[in-house]
Amino acid sequence: MTEEPGGGALLRLRGVSRRYGERQALHPLDLDVRRGSCTALYGHNGSGKSTLLRIAAGRDTPTAGRALFAGRPIDEDDPRVRASVAVVGDMAACYPDLTVREHLQLVTLAHAVDEPDDWIDRVLADRGLSDHGEALPMSLSSGQLQSLHLAAALVRPRDLLILDEPEQRLDPAARRRLAGLLRAEKADGVAVLLATHHAELAEAVADRMVVLEEGRVIADGPPSDVLERLERRS
């Protein structure tokens, strides 16, 4: 388990901003995500949520500011980051010739997971994929593909779980299971950073809600308070 210096935030962003050419995708902001907590990023497409997630995952470098994981600059090529940070992106690519089970076996092999078959069976059942273990990606629905990407994050060790709109393409029952999953992750001490369009999901699982608009933070606080402020603003 990765320890954060002095018991502080596992993920810490300070003065982080990102510019692409002339476009300011993200204005300077601070963000802490601690173990056993969930921070939800909320906003429309183009608000800066995905840019912030890429920086938090070490997949992009801020134009200014610092992004730290366990007190160290975050970089997805850092072995500590690869071992401790699980990312569920927006419909990440699958290998067309590998079955659902083989995808998960590949993840457990990469992370030297003990008793991988037990973990895989458990996660397949949890994600509603038990009957699709031998299926190829092309035969899955978009919701089942999303469940596969979630499953791949759940069969590996993780201290920080980063999710980019994981509720997309899930039916209402699957979204309820997702909310239960994220609450269980918090209970296990995982730090969760979630970008979402669903206010209901943010309110159900997040301790803190950060609303972005054109790369700027326009609201920040407990989800119920933030949603009330947004409603008054509209």
Keyphrases for this structure?
ABC transporter ATP-binding protein; ABC_transporter-like_ATP-bd; single chain; 234 residues; AAA+_ATPase; 6-stranded mixed β-sheet; ATP-binding; globular
Sum this structure up briefly.
This protein has helices at 49-56, 79-84, 100-110, 116-126, 142-154, 172-187, 199-205, 223-233, and strands at 11-20, 23-33, 38-42, 64-69, 72-73, 85-88, 160-164, 191-196, 208-213, 216-221. The protein has 234 residues and is of the alpha/beta class.
Widest beta sheet: strand line-up: 6-7-8-3-9-10
- Please give the domain count: 1
Give the termini distance in whole angstroms. 43 Å
Would you identify the CATH H-level superfamily?
Answer: P-loop containing nucleotide triphosphate hydrolases
Structural category is alpha/beta
Return the CATH architecture.
3-Layer(aba) Sandwich
Main beta sheet:
6 strands, mixed
Our count of helices gives 8
Give the helix level as a range of percent. 25-40%
Radius of gyration, in angstroms, nearest whole number: 18 Å
Strand content: 25-35%
The whole-number mean of residue pLDDT values reads: 91
GO molecular function, one term: ATP binding
Domain ABC transporter: 11-234
Organism: Streptomyces pactum
Keywords: ATP-binding, Nucleotide-binding, Transport
